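Action item from last meeting closed. Structure (219 res):
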């Protein structure tokens, strides 16, 4: 009988140790993820502003950042056809491609109010905080369109819905669903708005990746 009790105690102790190690592993994983998320935010140094260059193509915009990079964005319809950015319609689907961006930093892509000063963050934006909406009823492999997109190569942020860059050179593809042009405190039917890229919340005050392509809405 005492032997049975000893085995029972040993099994109970082993189970407690197993649960303790599991708890420690979970805590360690949470700490690692927290550090991966926090360190880039805390150590980032703003790289300056971006000068928007004139473009002869209404579907393309280019800016040169103080970091020496030339960034370009272009927009087409969902089928790849040319479209008129000055006559957008709510519900329309847009494909935005970019090149020259810093792939070590995440960006938001959305239709936003364009500020008068290059030192001011673009916004507010249609659709609010950029995100990647997943439709559970969509076909496997189908592109998901949202009012705003989040591009970030960090695996930790991908857990929260970020889409990765297409290449280490800073190429990306975003899929925008045109939303209501009027939001809380702004109206893109009367204010200057554009398809905008800007650093995400990990470098929110850094304006070096700001690029905007002017848009307007059909009446």
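Sequence:
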């Amino acid at each position: 009988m005492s032997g049975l009790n000893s085995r029972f105690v040993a099994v109970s102790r082993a189970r407690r140790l197993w649960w303790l190690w599991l708890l420690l592993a979970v805590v360690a994983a949470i700490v690692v993820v927290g550090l991966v998320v926090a360190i880039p935010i805390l150590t980032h140094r703003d790289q300056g502003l971006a000068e928007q260059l004139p473009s002869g193509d209404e579907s393309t915009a280019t800016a040169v950042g103080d970091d020496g990079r030339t960034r370009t964005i272009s927009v087409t319809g969902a089928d790849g056809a040319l479209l008129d950015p000055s006559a957008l319609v709510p519900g329309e689907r847009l494909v935005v491609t970019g090149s020259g961006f810093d792939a070590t930093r995440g960006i938001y892509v959305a239709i936003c109010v364009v500020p008068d000063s290059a030192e001011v963050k673009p916004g507010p934006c249609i659709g609010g905080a950029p995100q990647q909406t997943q439709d559970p009823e969509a076909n496997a492999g189908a592109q998901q369109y949202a009012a705003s997109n989040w591009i970030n190569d960090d695996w930790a942020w991908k857990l929260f819905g970020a889409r990765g860059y297409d290449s280490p050179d800073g190429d990306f593809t975003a899929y925008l669903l045109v939303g209501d042009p009027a939001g809380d405190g702004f109206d893109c039917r009367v204010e200057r708005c554009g398809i905008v890229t800007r650093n995400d919340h990990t470098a929110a005050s850094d304006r070096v990746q700001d690029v905007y392509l002017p848009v307007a809405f059909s009446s």
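Note appended to the action item: The chain has one domain: 44-215.
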